[in-house]
Amino acid sequence: MNHFQLPPYGHGFCPHCLTGFDLTDAEPTFAERLPHNDQLIYVLCSVCHPKFKSGGDQGRKAISDRCFINVKLSGKCPDGRIPGWALTSSLTLALNDYDLVLALENGHGLTREQYFSICSGSYAVTALPGGGAMICSDSPATPSRHQPHATDGSTSHVSRKDASTNKTHRPDGGQK
Ligand SMILES: [Zn+2]
Question: Is the pTM of the predicted complex or chain greater than 0.90?
Fold first, then answer.
């Protein structure tokens, strides 16, 4: 994904109005259930988020529909560039101790196989001291992969985050 016109850390584009904004004080606006048992979490800017929250059923639907169109159908800004959407997932958020900035910056840190394997069952995420997280999952090993250590039908993964990355680290000095 080509990020552009955003400060280097902790920002994303509002999926509704396409404005870039600082995620530090943002919160999830709404979630969409995904077929593989995760939720896509949409984070809207400080203008659109309260509009959604006070919008009533019709207003909320109009806003979420616009987000779906922006992200899924076009996926680009009007000039054709692909923005760094302010989107994450439930699992990604849990792995980043429910910190939106870290979730957007770090992602889930899993391989594709690990991610879908974990989503296919139930899991618990435990935050570890120092910024990592441990996932305990009851999902069976991914069928297409040889996993010699998964002998009891359960898997666990440790997702390590760069210890130098935290929400107070702002290379641009916290520029808004
Ligand atoms: Zn917005």
Answer: no
